[in-house]
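Possible regression after last week's pipeline update?

I re-ran a chain I had predicted before the update to compare outputs. Posting the input and the new output here so someone can diff against the archived version. Not blocking, just want to make sure nothing changed silently.
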Amino acid sequence: MTDVHVVWLEDVGMGDVPCVGGKNASLGELSRSLISSGVRVPEGFATTASAYRAFVTANRIEPGIRASIDGYRAGRTSLREAGEAIRELILEGQFPPDIAADIREHYRSLSQRTGQDRASVAVRSSATAEDLPDASFAGQQETFLNVAGERELMEACRRCYASLFTDRAISYREIKGFDHLDVALSVGVQRMVRSDLGASGVMFSIDTESGFPRSVLISAAWGLGETVVQGTINPDKYQVFKPLLSTTEFAPIIEKTTGSKERKMVYSRGGHARTRTVDTTDQERRSFVLSDSEILTLARWAVAVEDHYGRPMDMEWAKDGSSGELFMVQARPETVQARRSGSVFNIYHLRESGRRLASGAAVGESIAHGSACVVRDARDIDNFRDGAILVTRMTDPDWVPIMQRAAGIVTDHGGPTSHAAIVSRELGVPAVVGTGNGTSVLEEGTSITLSCAGGEDGEVYEGTLAFDVEEVDLGALPATRTAVMVNIASPSAAFQWWRLPAAGVGLARMEFIISNLIRIHPMALVHPERVTDPVEAERIRELTYGYTDLQEYFVDVLATGIGKIAAPYHPHPVIVRLSDFKSNEYAHLIGGGSFEVAEENPMLGFRGASRYYDERYREGFALECRALKRVRERLGFANVVVMVPFCRTPHEADLVIKVMAENGLVRGEQGLQIYMMCEIPSNVILASEFARRFDGFSIGSNDLTQLVLGVDRDSEQLAGLFDERNEAVTSMIAQVIDRAHAAGIKIGICGQGPSNHADFAEFLVKEGIDSISLNPDTYLKTVPVIAAAENQQR
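New output (post-update):
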């Protein structure tokens, strides 16, 4: 292809990277190889590297490039002066007549293909060293949108060539050791998708923060995609579980988060600028950009692209607002998580607490501290202090030189697929992006600690907080006969621990999702007319915006949250405990005061199983059942096991199981298993009776210890008496393990005891418990204890 100057995209593939660059080669590969998978790519053509070199030769630019670079390296000229001189040489150059004619002819043909006289096109740069595994910083060269007409097209092509020598591009190649004249540039010209009337965004076939490989991450915003890539807005975020996408009746969407999306980029209506940024409407800000069917379509495309390339991919997509069609507009290898080891990694732990100053999306999983260096504008980049924490509104490629010198990064705007997030991952610098107010609340020069160690949510704290770093080698963990599981409450933290070789989730706490994500009392959604506080009523309207059925809000958010907890451990069992708030905790939910009555002793009051069949909560419990049914049958997580807490009598168990069946959760149907928390002395004494009604037990050692010893577990004065290793408690545990096995059902434990006390873990192994579920941060230290105890039993 050395003598060819312009080619149609469908005629090139990944073998043509030296000729058309990684970006255009990938578009060609998508165009010709993934049509059968339904992937749509806008039509287009590309100039070749030989066209660029012919342009450089015809205009005698090479000596000027060498002279400017040599002057910069010798310190005779600044980076800015060298870049300006080279760009001026290129912009003053003229295309050789044969190449210019070839570009114009392809443009006319493209216009005919699209049924336009002067097709609007996107003109993108594709360098031969860009978008490759070892050189993939986003946005090194320029893109020009809404280009129409031959004159505008030729000028845009020339500007693409010049962008090969922006200050940031020169600096990047110097760092990477690339010879500037070994790098050529191909220009991609594609039909412009009318995403200005629709939407666009970025998509990864891997979770970009945790490296969880079985998830598709999608960012979405209204208008042209540059706002997402540049990080000027906070986009919607969606996640989809890949393994269940192949079953058409499943819709495994495990996260849907609405971004603020304050602005969007659209075409200009005149003047020199081709695009402009405008405010979004209130409805656009509060609405999801994509429907569920569109989310699933994009996710299936991501899987098809990943399967074709055989590696995790970073993609860009666009939705044409006039036709409603989705398009893939770019695909390149994901380069950060794909290189990480799956078995050796570091875990960071904060040892101190501090006042939280800001929060946003976490980038990375580490912790950093330093002084805040607030830089609001790129013109002030030179004021940055090495080793400080960079605090800014947003970043673009011009910021890369100081980003790599920062201890951490905080931005006001942007999501997990923004420029700041992508580059921070590349550099291994922790960042908290999309705080909304970082530059306002973080004062210049103050000491702060930035933590990305808590899952998807990043926090910025006041002061210098101490932290530990633990290096983990999963290959060194011993195998155990006892199934070792994990306890998970927060969906945002679930992916953080996916590398642990856990046998599933022994306790997934529904309460966290209700209190932190839903935030509304379920009965307030069933009977909103009974919420008399106008402030609470307005808050309910805000949170449920877009839901015509308020009850659907509860079901949708709860089902999605449970699905995200279940995904990293699929197909292992994930035991989800039904809500176990006390009445005072329910009362603190929005609207809760209208449905809860104050109790003298909520710990022993209207909680757990007693609520589910009672008319005061029965309709709220129906929403929990609907969510669990959706998780299993619509999302596809049949590995979810339902667990009933605080069930006082066998008769109460019968009532709960009956109500569950009335709401579509029938024990034994479609493999549904129902477990019981064993946390009341009556559960042990009548274990044989309970075992006839449930498929398994899970010992809740905290409540069981409290009720056996008569010690309030929350009392500081009695803390010395609270010990699950007390003979009375261990006697009860030994009895119920024996009775469960005699009845032929499984029994595990999900309390804190095994994590806190090695001798307690040894006791459980000796008694033959089937599973032990641990808090994730204690998993690594407890597994060897369990293995050692098992070896002693041999």
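Follow-up from reviewer: compared with the archived run. The chain has 29 helices and 30 strands. Marking as no regression found.
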